[in-house]
Each structure stands twice: as C-alpha cells, then as structure tokens.
Amino acid sequence: MKIYNGLTDFNKLNNAVVTIGTFDGVHIGHQKILQRLIETSKNIDGETVLITFWPHPRYVLNPNGNKFHLLTSIEEKSEILEEIEINHLIIIPFTREFSNMSSEDFVKKVLVDKIGTKKLVIGYDHRFGKDRLGSFEELKKDAPLYGFDVEEIPEQDVDHVAVSSTKIRKALEEGDIETANKYLGRQYHLSGLVVKGNGLGKTLGFPTANINPLFEYKLIPADGIYAVSVTRNKKTFSGMLNIGLRPTVGGKERVIEVNIFDFDEDIYGENITVKFHQKTRNEVKFETVQKLVEQLQKDKNEIKNIMSSR
Length: 310
Known about the structure:
Blueprint: E1 2-4, E2 16-20, H1 28-43, E3 47-54, H2 57-61, H3 74-84, E4 88-93, H4 96-99, H5 103-115, E5 117-123, H6 136-146, E6 149-153, E7 157-158, E8 161-162, H7 165-173, H8 177-184, E9 189-195, H9 200-203, E10 209-213, E11 224-232, E12 235-244, E13 255-260, E14 271-281, H10 289-308
Parallel strand pairs: 1-4, 2-3, 2-5, 3-4, 5-6
Antiparallel strand pairs: 7-8, 9-10, 9-14, 10-13, 11-12, 11-14, 12-13
Helix pairs in contact: 7-8
C-alpha cells in the first residue's frame, strides 16, 4: 500500500475506485465498504484509493468541545488498511481552510482532476464538503457529468443493531468489550510504553507493567479488571489488566497496569500491545490490602481459565 500525506505526490490514475471517510476503528461496516471497493477494482482492472483526514475533523472544527477519543491512531488505521490490501491511502491534512472547500469543488478538484475517479463507493448517509452539504443524492447528480459511477453501501448490522464507530466507543466506555470486539471484527487494542510505577504490584505478588499509551487521543476502556493478551517482540502472553485509581492503596491518578502471566523480564522503556478480550469485574475498594491480594488471585485464576478457552 502506498501512503500519501496530502495530494501533492499523488499521480492521477486511469481506473481509480475510491472511498472517503475517517474510518475510525475500521469496523465491520467499514470493512464491507472496503470489500466492495476491492471487488469493484478487480472487475475494472483498477486500483483502490482510500481518502481519509488527519487530524480528525472534530479536533479542528470544535477544538474547545468535549474531549473526543478515537478507536485508532492514523498509524493503526494504516496498518489495518494495509492488511486489507488497499492500494493507495491518501491522508489529507484537515484544516479550517480545507473544511471550507465546497462539495462541488471537492468532487471536481480532488475526485476527478487529481485522482481520476471512475467509481466512488461510500457508506450509508456519508456527507462531505463545507457544512457537510455533499450527499449521495448530490453525487448521483454530479457523477454522470464527470464520468464516474457512485455506489452507496447500506448500514451493516449485528443482531439488528447498526454498527458505527460511535456505538463502539460507547461500548468501550461502558466496559462492554464483547460488543466492541464483535462490531470491530477483532479485539480492541492499546499500544503503549512501559513506564516505572511505584512497584506496589511486585510487593503484593502481582508485578505489573504500567502502560503509557502511545496515542494521546486513544480511547481507554472503562475502569475495571480485564482479561487481555499482551504482545512484546512478536511473542504473546496472557495477562490481567487493571484500569483505574487503585482505591485500596490510596491511588490518586488513573493508571493502566498489566500483570503478564508466566513472564519475568525487565521491559521498562519498551513498547507493548494489549488486546482486550473480556472485562471480569469493576474496580472496587477493599477493606484491607490482604483482601485485595486474595481477590487478585481469584481474578488471575478466572482470567487464566478465560484465556485458555480462546
């Protein structure tokens, strides 16, 4: 897959099959669009092009709004798209100036003149251009004038629930990992740098790696205890992860810490990736540290059973 940071270095194609969107999470609804993109490109001997934007438009258009977190960084998104075997990924820098481009100009200057679009495949209710005035209906009118076809992919649903990045974010914020993973079509993951903590876990018999997320806008699931898999240097281990304040020991800051099973190496300063499989309980304050230790042993046994069955 070729990656372009903007349109400058992109050379117009003869048979470009294009889609547009933020594609946060690249969930199963997005994957349906991409499957259709690839299928169409094969039918016309074309090349697939995905246009996305960075920073996320909400960061630019509403910088002082509520904190908005994402399912994937631009790097993570790129890795997933490469696995799906998209030919070209164009990352357009999203600015205030770009946001003022009309939908008509976007179609003519970007899709037609710069990319050479022959087929445009978009998701249900996709909108683009200034004030999001561009729509499927507008595209259907414009497409014949500029010599390309347009196709809209309907909403994808799981158990009669329409899949969206917003619903996945909500599930993760509620600790509903199973629903989030079902909608994503894979385990939600978090990559981060292992940093020094206060060493308390080791004194309790459960040494932990404290994780500082690599992507500042990454959505962190709800506080609680999770069954996870941990990848370090292409080797994968099971583990139990805690997100929260650690109230039993007087914690004041939210931390992400993982006890990696059957592992005893110094990994400070290394990057690891955690995949979430299941939330097992909420974080609670125990009356004594001994009761916390007893519960952690129960948690470990339960999570080992969960992970051994996967």
